[in-house]
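**User:** You know discrete backbone vocabularies at least as well as I do. Would you mind producing a protein record, from residues through to fold? Write it directly below this note and I will take it from there.

**Assistant:**
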Amino acid sequence: MSQIIPAYVINLDRRPDRWETISANLDRIGVKAERIPAVDARLLERQEQRRIEDGNDPLYKISLGSAANMRSQSTAMESFLRTDAPACLILEDDAELANDTASLLARIDWWPNGTEIVRLEEAAPVGRKWRNAPPLWSRPCGRTPSGRALHRTERGYGGSAAYIVNRAGAARTIRAFASPANNTDQILFNLRTSPTARALRPVQIVPAMARQRPEESSDLAAWLQKRPRPKYRLRSLRSMSKVRLLMLLGLVSRVRTEYVP
């Protein structure tokens, strides 16, 4: 099966074990991917320390783990934009992909109109208020080549280990990542706080085609300590009431997105 949508895997040089694991998964399901050397948060930590010693403010307003992740994902998108491909799949090296992923990358006619990013990964609610709330989606706006539903996001959910972004979305995301005020998940998928997410108009695949391997822990955990974040203007009460009205009319609904291999 030909592959017109390229795939990129973000992987630290010091974690060849993770590259081997995800490569085995991709080989088994027939997906070819290019390795993108991840930016090491250890390097950013040393750079920040030197800045502080020289009397400068820290370079990043977000955690160093989030900054490293964004720089790595930006590198992958820049590599994609140097090709002629219409979209690309971005993967973190702890992702596990479903058997029908290759069919998703072999054509682009399934792509939903008006969106710039499609998430394969299980959706994780962001923020304490929504932690136990099922994801909220619009009615299906299409189907993948293997028959999975495509739902437009109606609320913010985390998870950026596996998503497909088109050329417009990649350029938009690179600009947003250049001076970030929040982490990757929030910028890409939190409609309540991120103008970038609202412009990207995310779509979720249901059931999900990817998940982070449960036995893996984040290599960035030690650098994810929170830093002060600027306050965001949340959506107006009128906008939130609109979502509730759409729920009453049955135009949006709560749908679980558990991974199905």
